[in-house]
Amino acid sequence: MSAFEAAASPHPFAARLFRHAPAVFAGTLFVSALLLFAVQPMFTKMVLPKLGGAPAIWSVAMVFFQAALLLGYAYAHWLTKYLSPRHGALVHLAVLGLAALSLPLGIAGGFGTPPSTHIELWLLALFAMSIGLPFTALAASAPLLQRWFAVSGHARASNPYVLYAASNLGSFAALLSYPVLIEPLLALQAQTALWAAGFALLAILIATSALVVASGATEKQDHVSTASAPALADRLSWIALAAVPAGLVVAVTAHISTDVAAAPFLWVVPLALYLLTFVAVFNERPWVSHTAVALMVPYVVAPLAISMLGGDKAFWLVTIALHLIAFFVLTLLCHGELYRRRPHPSQLTDFYLATSIGGVAGGVFTGLIAPNVFSTTTEYPILVAAAVLALPCTFSSGARAALKDAAVPLGMAVVLFLAHALTPFRISLDWMIGFQATLIVVATMILLSRKKPARIFGLVVLAFALSGLWQPGQSHLETTRSFFGVHKLADSADGKYRLLFHGTTIHGADRITNDDGSPVSGRAEPLAYYYRGGPISETILATRAARGRLQDVAAVGLGTGSLACYREPGENWTFFEIDPEVVRLARDPQRFRFISSCTPGIPVVLGDARLTLSDSKSSYDLIVLDAFSSDAIPAHLLTREAVAGYLARLKPHGVIVMHISNRHLELANIVAAVGASEGLVTLVKTDVSANSFAKDYKSNATVAVLARDANDIAGIARLPGWEKVSGEGVRPWTDDYSDLLSAMMRKKF
Questions:
Q1: Is residue 523, in this structure, part of any structural domain at all?
Q2: The model's pTM
Q3: Number of domains observed in the structure of the chain
Q4: 476 - beta bridge partners?
Q5: How far apart are CA 45 and CA 732, in angstroms?
């Protein structure tokens, strides 16, 4: 009698469990996945205060999660290959017990201030040391339990892949519930305690699953594979079909979160859709047939390809919807093809190991390689085009025939790329009608090429090449990229203004030529949100007037350096900036003149302001917070702990100014609620006087002012448009709690 047979139990309870094996295994996988994907937004939220809330944090976090998933799948593969389910269960329960020693979850010791370079590696190490073992142990559960079920001898064990749907349903439930229920209702401390309880429940369920397998041993003794090993071509196809969606989920997340907020609320939406595709297609009866998905692809790719890289994103909600729908359909396509190519259940762990390798490859390409290779988010259109290659029959007639079908549009795209590389140019408003007509023709050809998937690929590449040239009203100068985002320099169409973009938001404007075309000389004039007469200007001038002079000022967020021109002789101003690329651009007089013409040599402290400001030895009369990237908010700068840190560096009658302009979130009441919790008075003004941006590049801003004593901001309160805000009814944000969904709802309704 084999060891597997010896594990069989005749106990009636075990026999009853065996009859309900599919439900037991599905429930265990559901809980495992629920824990696995609840920890991702939960722990990443813990890390946000360390790194300024950049969207890239989630990209790097995804690389870690994919790598830990690979390690877990490799461990499961080894466990099922060399140990019987009974002995494998004992080993796995021991690993879970060891992982339980690290609970409740928290940031590992030794990770204080992040370095100024190689932040990605530091962040990966932080994740590995903090949650590496429990996450890897959880990651092993999906392939491990499916393999156990496959050898259990149960009548329904011939297709264990359907259990993957239950696993991903748990993942989807975790991600969907996090922003809607968990984040708004529970603080992080309560979340980690609840998660630890769920981890204990999982250990019990895994032990029960092992008992179920042992109960059915007598019904199927031969669990050794008789199927041949997968061919190299099969393994490579599994890796590729998993890599493209894994990269896409990171790329689309970074794209949509740049203009709203670096927060779990937005990060979980694409990941939830990604997991939902597994639920939809890893099923004996897929929700949507693979053929139907393939038919949908041209209809979502055509509008995406002609709009992704160029133009104004004024209709942000429609734009985000388009990106998410296209992402969902393309991921359905890749995962549907992956399921169609699944191997015999005896090769199940090989299959999942290959898919996890693909997941790591996609994540590494998008999260680590692309930011260091491309100056823009080029990886996103590359992955969209690559997903099109997963269409059925793309290579049915061979690679040569596919290349022939795609040759003409690909050749045109290459010519456009080379022409732009040799002589950079952008399509202007004068060419708008012809350009739009060309894009419509390309989109129409994509729709008419449904039976030629390789041609669709070529046309999609051509559409991306064309749309990338569209930049109405601007002359592009330079695009640069760092861990914290993509920065674009452009001149206005009339050549009078130099602009700095982050995402779709202008973060600074500098007048560079006079009306007669001569270069502007002398002291630069602040524009955009910082124009004289705007609310930011009013706070600085009124605070100076109330005190007679400003001895020490801290400005968080450098941008183009506009605020430097508000410094007067004898005042000590210090800027705090997290992004070294921003510092480089602002200090270069050939790009922006604010620092060079107003305060040459002004000190700039590099690093996250919450940490570097706390480390400062100075006390300040005025602290100006303007650290938003595009419309994305670094939420950790608005929490009660953050404000307490500012107060520690603020003089007794000092003033805090926060620039809180945002197209999507209502932040005034949050700031006021946080201020009230620290005993502060808050005034807010939403500017409406700047109405000619296209002519003078002056922008309306929403600004909050906080002080310990109302008398310290009495001069500001007397100015038109300033109102006292109490934040009543709004729960103040803390490092342990934030509620982005409510802020969005208040803004919209």
A1: no
A2: 0.73
A3: 4
A4: 490
A5: 17
